[in-house]
Specification:
The protein has about 375 residues and is an alpha/beta fold. It has helices at about 15-25, 65-75, 130-140, 155-165, 185-200, 245-250, 290-305, 370-380, and strands at about 5-10, 30-35, 75-80, 85, 90-95, 100, 105, 110-115, 125, 145-150, 170-175, 205, 210-215, 220-225, 230, 235, 240-245, 260, 270-275, 280, 315-320, 325-330, 335-345, 345-355, 360-365. It folds into three domains: about 1-110 and about 240-305, FAD/NAD(P)-binding domain (3-Layer(bba) Sandwich); about 115-235, FAD/NAD(P)-binding domain (3-Layer(bba) Sandwich), CATH 3.50.50; about 325-380, Enolase-like, domain 1 (2-Layer Sandwich), CATH 3.30.390.120. It is built from eight helices and 25 strands. Strand 13 and strand 14 (about 220-225) form a beta hairpin. The protein is globular. The structure holds flavin-adenine dinucleotide (FAD). Flavin-adenine dinucleotide binds near residues 14 and 247.
């Protein structure tokens, strides 16, 4: 019967490991099985884009090896094991040629880097960095070269631009947007970040895209749709993440942008839950640490007998560009209002106020960062 089956958690990223740790606060005895496609080592993903500033090698970014995690959390851990399907009728997950029963199943399977469909024979030098194993491969590939192009000017592209520049690399950023982090920052603040990165020596090619990457005798040629050709050694693709929803969708779970769950983190099928980058929680896909921590705390209570709904406050995003410290909370897409901008020398405070003058979003840099907490308090919570 499945009543003796374990709680099965798919994924050992911050979502999976935090959930297991939270469950163990309330319940020391229920068996927990964690399954991960990667090596299961624990690490803090946000640190990947600060490796050079912190002068850390990939090995130094490992917090605990997989076997140490398994022991500390008192869980059974299957590493390098890919879940290929879910049979919700028999309450089993499918590994290649094996079936594992679950009592409750939690999907914490993250998101995957979007890959652009480019032409050329240099594509094997294009790296997406969404876990420590990716990062290790990338750092290895940097040895002995010094020119890096970054495709994408979102949060991750900008953070890597700053970090690689700190590491002494020549950095070119190429993106179709006219400013940086367009989903997060109003252009006036994005332009401020660009200026700071330019002052550090980063080159920007905005409003253009890469069409082709060819290998040359001493590196790569990147062909931009503007006609320009850039000569570099390695390329980072940071053009966005897509929640991992395929297995969930195939099993018949409701999926929109992410795996749909309600405020109790329940999917559309019984005894299956989701959290972290793979989940769309009550309509919100928030691929950041703070929301997944809230979810892990609430879900641990639910799974141990105290049904608990998550309640999101307003959670601003910190941009880890030390040359221009920035925090932002973009206003919801469907609200009316306007941006109000204040400057102090180079620094900017942009406040988005609704028609009734209420604060609905903000973006601040530099010395205005000390207003982050006060501004966050003034924002309406996502859930009341
Ligand atoms: P992941 O860490 O992606 O874990 C997914 C897990 O699922 C992995 O263990 C994987 O092996 C496993 N898995 C997937 N599919 C399967 C399968 N079929 N079978 C078995 N296992 C599977 N957020 C912030 O809040 N602040 C920041 O400053 C910040 N900086 C970031 C910097 C970078 C460079 C990146 C890439 C992200 C950053 N983020 C930041 C986002 C944050 O790191 C993520 O939201 C968070 O780490 C997601 O954790 P997760 O556990 O949901 O997913």
């Amino acid at each position: 019967s499945t009543s003796e089956a374990p709680i099965v958690i798919v994924g050992t990223g911050l979502a999976g490991y935090t959930l297991a740790r939270e469950i163990r606060k309330y319940d020391k005895s229920t068996s927990i099985l964690m399954i991960t496609a990667d090596d299961g080592n624990s690490y803090s993903k946000p640190i990947l884009s600060t490796g050079f500033q912190k002068e850390k090698t990939p090995d130094e970014l490992v917090q605990f090896q997989a076997d140490v995690m398994a022991e500390r959390l008192d869980v059974e851990l299957l590493t390098r094991s890919c879940v290929t399907g879910i049979d919700s009728e028999s309450k089993q997950v499918l590994l290649d040629d094996e079936r594992v029963s679950y009592n409750r199943l939690i999907l914490a399977c993250g998101a995957s880097a979007i890959r652009l469909n480019l032409s050329g024979d240099g594509l094997k030098h294009v790296y997406s960095i969404n876990n420590l194993m990716d990062y290790r491969a990338f750092r290895h590939a940097l040895v002995g070269v010094d020119r890096v192009a970054i495709m994408g000017a979102g949060l991750i592209g900008c953070e890597f631009a700053n970090d690689l520049r700190s590491g002494g690399y020549n950095v070119n950023v190429i993106a179709p947007s006219e400013s940086v982090m367009p989903g997060l920052l109003p252009p006036i603040v994005g332009d401020r970040v660009i200026q700071s990165l330019r002052d550090e020596g980063v080159c920007f090619h905005l409003g253009v895209v890469v069409e082709r990457i060819d290998e040359t005798s001493d590196g790569l040629s990147l062909y931009l749709n503007s006609g320009e050709i850039l000569e570099v050694d390695r390329v980072i693709s940071a053009v966005g993440l897509r929640p991992n929803t395929v297995i969930a969708a195939e099993a018949g779970l409701d999926v929109a942008h992410g795996i749909c769950v309600n405020r109790r983190l329940e999917t559309s099928l019984p005894d299956i839950y989701a959290l972290g980058d793979c989940a769309e929680v009550d309509g919100h896909v928030l691929p950041y640490v703070q929301p997944l921590m809230s979810c892990a705390r609430a879900l641990a209570k639910t799974l141990t007998g105290e049904p608990t709904d998550i309640s999101y406050g307003a959670m601003p995003v910190m941009v880890k560009t030390p040359c221009c410290p920035t925090a932002a909370y973009p206003p919801p897409a469907d609200v009316h209002g306007s941006w109000h901008v204040e400057r102090a020398s180079e620094d900017i405070k942009a406040l988005f106020r609704g028609d009734d003058d209420k604060l609905l979003g903000f973006a601040i840099t530099g010395e205005f960062m000390n207003e982050k907490q006060a501004l966050t308090k003034e924002l309406p919570p996502i859930h009341n």
